[in-house]
Amino acid sequence: MKRIIQPALLLATLAFAIAPAFTPSFRGYDPATFPVQIENPSVQPAGYAFAIWGLIYLWLIAHAAFGVIKRRGDLAFVKPAVPLTLSVALGTVWLAIAVASPIPAAVVIVAMAALAVYAYVIADPAQDRWLLSAPLAIYAGWLTAASAVSTGVILAGYGILPDTTAALAMLGIVLVIGVTVQINRPNLPIYGATLVWAIVGIVVKSWGVNPTVAYAAVAGAVLMALVTAAQLRRQSA
Known about the structure:
Helix content is 72%, strand content 0%. By secondary structure, it is mainly alpha-helical.
């Protein structure tokens, strides 16, 4: 297991990165699949925010390749490789699931996020920071936000919560998870910065359309940025 998990991670990561080329275009869950049709859910960030996936894919590939070539069998890379492999393997099929059925897709992306966050928090922060902790941080950070977005869209789409309430509830959950993780991994700002990026995307999408969500997201982005900066300063002091 120790010798094969890193090559397995590299193969899974490459499959994850190329999967969108073989999957129907996905721009969010189709509103027509929900009882309550909301054209632009307030919890969803502006489209430009999803461009971060390019960086995530490249950084994860660099991480997996470096692990195989330079750190084969190194426990610091092997430990997070198991949950990360499971997460990216689920990610390979996630787009196909999302196009077909929102609820299973939400379950899968929550599992992906949990595995990614776990991989990040167990990674050794002192070793190969920019090729070990950093790529895991950006991936875990984005999935923390994305899993909340997916859940929020479903809560509103099935009428469990109103659109604005669903967005505010998911924003609160993201901040609780984000602050907790960032406090426990204070020496690297990537996770917190990624959440700020996602939350600012919500600000941009909601500004002038849903002021309640927009102002709450501004406050959330500021809070996450302050926590990230404060923890980083504390570590450098």
